[in-house]
Amino acid sequence: xxxxxxxxxxxxGSYILLLGKVFARPEKKKIYYxxxxxxxxxxxxxxxxxxxxxxxxxxxxxTIQTAYNTENPLLPSYLIGLAARDSxxxxxxxxxxxxxxxxxxxxxxxxxxxxxxxxEQIDALEIMGVNSASYLILxxxxxxxxFNPFLCMLSMIVGVLGGWIAGVAAGVVSSQEYxxxxxxxxxxxxxLYAIIKTEVFAFIITSVxxxxxxxxxxxxxxxxxxxxxxxxxSSVVILLFNxxxxxxxxx
Amino acid sequence: xxxxxxxxxxxxxxxxLDDISAVFEPGKTNLIIGxxxxxxxVLLKSIVGLHAVDxxxxxxxxxxxxxxxxxxxxxxxxxxxxLFQGGALFDSATVEENVMYPLExxxxxxxxxxxxxxxxxxxxxxxxxxxxxxxxxxxGGMQKRVAIxxxxxxxxxxxxxxxxxxxxxxxxxxxxxxxxxxITEEYCMTTIVNTHDMNSVxxxxxxxIYIYQGKKWWEGTKEEILQSDNVELNDFVFASKLAKRxxxxx
Lengths: 251, 250
Fold this sequence. Notes:
Number of helices of chain A: 9
Largest interface: A-B, 16 and 25 residues
Structural class of chain B: alpha/beta
Number of strands of chain B: 10
Oligomer: heterodimer
Largest sheet of chain A: none
Helix content of chain A: over 70%
Helix content of chain B: 40-55%
Number of helices of chain B: 10
Strand content of chain B: 15-25%
Number of strands of chain A: 0
CATH architecture of chain B: 3-Layer(aba) Sandwich
Strand order of the largest sheet of chain B: 6-7-8-3-9-10
Structural class of chain A: mainly alpha
CATH topology of chain B: Rossmann fold
Largest sheet of chain B: 6 strands, mixed
CATH superfamily of chain B: P-loop containing nucleotide triphosphate hydrolases
Radius of gyration of chain B: 19 Å
Shape of chain A: elongated
CATH class of chain B: Alpha Beta
């Protein structure tokens, strides 16, 4: 137990020290802006497809499952749309999408930085006098903070749309009832709540994955191991912060 | 000139560099030689500051490198070029972008000026018509030459080469060796080359330091190395059957 505790604090300390280097003043802002744009394409635009597909099918499944579990004449049929909407807004588009991105983007970041580390590209940057942590990691964090809210909103729209199409196609809810449910007792704060969570999760995914990628020692085998560690750790931290943020923002 | 005084470095209690002192002279190709695992890469990386030494002093001319703060080290590093074992070119950048990178980061040159300087450096290392290729699209020897071009882009005072010939055929190795020697003399740089290739030793070794089990075991020139009666050095230098036959006869 003591060993695990020591290892945890050691990792946490190294992570905080790395963040200190990451948020140092950028050398040349122009180059950082270029890097941020590149990372928005790498990490954000390239994730639109997977987020849209998963959101569509998850919205569809949520709607159909809700419909089959509320087959009670006492329950109004608009409840299906309402439940699908709230599930998507409150949990799916922020937390589940973040977990998916932790897998896709997290492993991409960790393996990219890990490969740069084992092929001495990071050493080459350091030798030149470049703050490699800031140059490589800060643009990824900024790009995710800027773009992930759009992915979250895209997920909301596509999820609700998927639920509507699947619900009507499966005959479990009529189009009008679903739309009524979507509009019923709508709380706009839920969108803000999802975006706040998305921002926190974006920071966790990029910083935790970067930490593991940047810390790789050894060869290609270790790059794979550290990529897995990055995904697992990011996912656990996301779930932990999901609990904390839910308590803080909804209580 | 680079001077190291009584360098000591250990990893998890295992001593890798044990009381090493040496002077590396400008305008000369200074070689650090030794068997794999002898500590020569650790010595090179300690001199450039990638490893912090446990004890000892490192001087770049009159500047005590160990005592510099982060900003001062950063400023000094702009005068340092390094050629890594695998080239360490940035995968996501083209040949030209790789060479332009230090210029973009540390100078106020315009895009055209940077491109012009990058092309001068690439031409100097005999790379032509490869500006828009990515590192994965060129050979190992070309990667090394591009890495040299990147290393000299800012006209450094100090050049470090970590096993520049690893993975290269003998002919390409000679090309790289000659290039390092020519550039060193042309720019009067203090060049330190880390190698275990005896062709390099005999080809470009103006000054040679032999590291054995983390200690400086021998120091001299390429002419002196052949006449040395140091047993461990001879075991290394005349390791191959051909070299043994040349030295001791049949």
